[in-house]
Protein: Hydroxyethylthiazole kinase
Organism: Domibacillus antri
Amino acid sequence: MNNEFAAELLERVRKSKPLIHNLTNTVVTNFTANGLLSIGASPVMADAVEEAADMAKIAGAVVLNIGTLTAPKVEAMILAGKAANAAGIPVLFDPVGAGATPYRTESAKRILSEVNVDILRGNAGEIAVLCGQSIQVKGVDGGGNADMRALAKEASETLGVTCVITGAEDVVFGKESFSVQNGDPILTTVTGTGCLLGSVIAAFCAVEKNYAKAAAAALAFYGVAAERAVEKSGHNRPGTFAVEFLNELSLTGKEAIMKKAKIEEL
Amino acid sequence: MNNEFAAELLERVRKSKPLIHNLTNTVVTNFTANGLLSIGASPVMADAVEEAADMAKIAGAVVLNIGTLTAPKVEAMILAGKAANAAGIPVLFDPVGAGATPYRTESAKRILSEVNVDILRGNAGEIAVLCGQSIQVKGVDGGGNADMRALAKEASETLGVTCVITGAEDVVFGKESFSVQNGDPILTTVTGTGCLLGSVIAAFCAVEKNYAKAAAAALAFYGVAAERAVEKSGHNRPGTFAVEFLNELSLTGKEAIMKKAKIEEL
Amino acid sequence: MNNEFAAELLERVRKSKPLIHNLTNTVVTNFTANGLLSIGASPVMADAVEEAADMAKIAGAVVLNIGTLTAPKVEAMILAGKAANAAGIPVLFDPVGAGATPYRTESAKRILSEVNVDILRGNAGEIAVLCGQSIQVKGVDGGGNADMRALAKEASETLGVTCVITGAEDVVFGKESFSVQNGDPILTTVTGTGCLLGSVIAAFCAVEKNYAKAAAAALAFYGVAAERAVEKSGHNRPGTFAVEFLNELSLTGKEAIMKKAKIEEL
C-alpha cells in the first residue's frame, strides 16, 4: 500500500461521513465524539440494550470498547455486535485493560466468542492475554514488550481478526500486514487517544472492505496528525496538545499524508 | 423583543446564578457543566432514581436529554420532570436522536406524555418525529429540511410547549414567536453544542417566565458567543473553537448582545 | 513541613507513577484521567461491582467520589474501599453534594461507616453535614462559611480521618495539621477541579504514608499549578485556563513549589 491510497481513504471518509456507533467507556465519550467529528465522520453512542442493535444496523461501523464495562453494557455490546455481523457492518473491538481483572478478561473473551470481531485493537499486553499468553498489564494505558509482530500474527490467525497492536511501532496483521511508524509519545499523556484511534480505524473500515489497508491508513493519518499537533503544542503540554490534535484531525489532509506517512508492508 | 431585553436576561442569569439540574447524556456532561459555569449558572447532575426528584425541587430549571438513555435514566427523568412540574420549575426536554431507533422514539413520547414539558428543543428531524411527521434522521447531529417555522408552530400547538428548533435559522414558537439568526456552522463540529444550548436556554428560563422570550434571548447570546469564538479560532479548528467558545460564554456581555443579536419577531 | 518536602513528594509521584483507581462521577472522568496523566500518575476507572475490588487491590490509592452516584456505583465503591482497606491501600472519599439530597447524605454516611476512609475531602458544607452540623449546601460547587479549621479538626477526630477542607483557605487535619494558601478563584469556574484535586491528593498519599503531609503537599502543588496557569490564561477565560492548568500540572516542578508553596503548620 502506498501513501496515496491512505490519503484516498481519508477523503472517502470525509465525503461519505460514515455513522460510527461507539459503545465505549465513560472516560472518553466526549473526546471520541469530537475526534470523529474532526475527521469528518458522524458519531453516535447508544449503549442501552433496548436500542444498541437498532443503532448498529444503521451505522457504517460499530466500536466495542470495554474501558468501563458493566454487565448491561456488555450485553448491549454483544447485541450491537451481532446485529452488525448480520448486516455485514464491520465491528472493531478494543479490549481495554484485559488482563487487569478477571471480570475484564472474561468479558473480553465472551465478546470475542459471541461476536464475529472484524478488527481487534489493543496494546501488546491486552492482545497477549486474549491469545492465552501472559504479559504483565498495568492499568489501562500500560504497554508491553512482547515481540509485537509475532503476537499480532498469532492473534490474527487464532482469533480470525485483523489485529492492530499499537505501541512504539504500530502493527497490522490481516489479509495483508503492515508496520506504521507515525505518532508521538505525547499521545500517551492524553487519555482516550487509544480509544479514539479505535473509532478512527472503524471509520476507515466503514469505507474500505480491506480492513488491513484501512487500519494501516488510519494509523498513519492519526500518527501524522499527532506529529503536526506536537509541533504546535511542544512536548510536556498535554492540555494544548489535546486541543491541537483535534484541530489537526480536521486539518491534516492528502498532502500531509503523502509526505509524512510511514507505512511498511510486512 | 429587543436586544436590550436579551442582554438584561443574561445579566439576570449572572446575578442569580440559577442551579440547573441536568439529566443528560454521558457524552456531554463535562462540556455542559463547564458551559453553564462559564455563563455564570450553577450546574448539577443527579440522575439516580433515588434523588432525581429531590434535586429537581431545589433547582431553577430541569433539563431532560435522552442522548444516551437507559431504562433507569428515563425513570429518573420522569421523576425529576414531575417533581419540577409540581413545584412550578421549568422543564426543558431535548429528544436527542428521536426517530433513530424505536426505543428512542417511544421514550421521547413517553416523557412528553408523563411530564409537562415547558420547552422542547431539537432539530427539525427530531421534532417532526414527535409531531407524527416523518423526516429522515441520521445520527444525533443530523439536520432536517422541513419548513421549520411551520413545524415549530405545529409542535408548539399540538404538544403544548414552547418549541425551539435549531438549524441554519433558529426558530422559537410559544407565547410569542421568534427567529434568531446568530451562530456559526462550526458549532456542528463540536459535540454537545446542541445539548449545552438546551441547558443555557433552561438557565434563561429560570429567570424569565416568558419562555419564548427567554429562549430567543438564550439563542442570540449563544450564537453571538459562537461568532466571537470563531473569530479567534478560525474555521476548521474545532479543538481551539471549543476552548474559545467556553471563554466567550464567559466574556460575551451586554454590549456584544446589543450590537450583534439578530432576533426577529414572527 | 517545608516546601522542599512537598517538592520531593511530587518527584516521588513522577518517579513511581502510582496507579490511581477512581470510582468517580460521569462529569469529570475525562478531566480526572487527564489531570492524573499530567502529574505523571496512572489513572484507572472501573466501577462495576464485578471488578471494583480486584482493581483496587492493584492500585496505589483508591478514590471514591459520589458526584453522580447510583445504587450499583455505591456498592462498587464499598467493595473497592473494603478491598483497599484489607490491602493497606489509602482510600480518599469525596462526598460531593452531601446535604443536597437525603439519598446523597445517606450514601455518604453509609460509605463512611462501611469503609475505613483514610482521607476525607470536601467543601465546608459537605463536611459539616457528615459531622452532623447543618450548613446550607447549594449544588455541588457550593461553598460554606463555617469556621473551617474547627470543622476540619472535628471531622478528623469524630470520623477518624485525615480531613481536607477546601475553600479560600485549604485546611488539613490529621496526624499533623496544615493551612495551604495557594490556588486561584478561577478554579471554581471549571467543573471537576475539586474532584481532580481529590485524585491528586490520593496520588501523593500513594507515595507517602503521612497522609496529612501528603495532602498538604498536593494542595500546594495543585494551587501553584493553578496560579501559573491563570498567569497564562488571564481571568475570565475558563476554557483557556482548563487547558493551561493541564499543561501546568505537567510543567510545574520542584523549583516552582520551592518558591511559591504557602504551607503553614497549625
In short: The two ends of chain A are 11 Å apart (CA to CA).
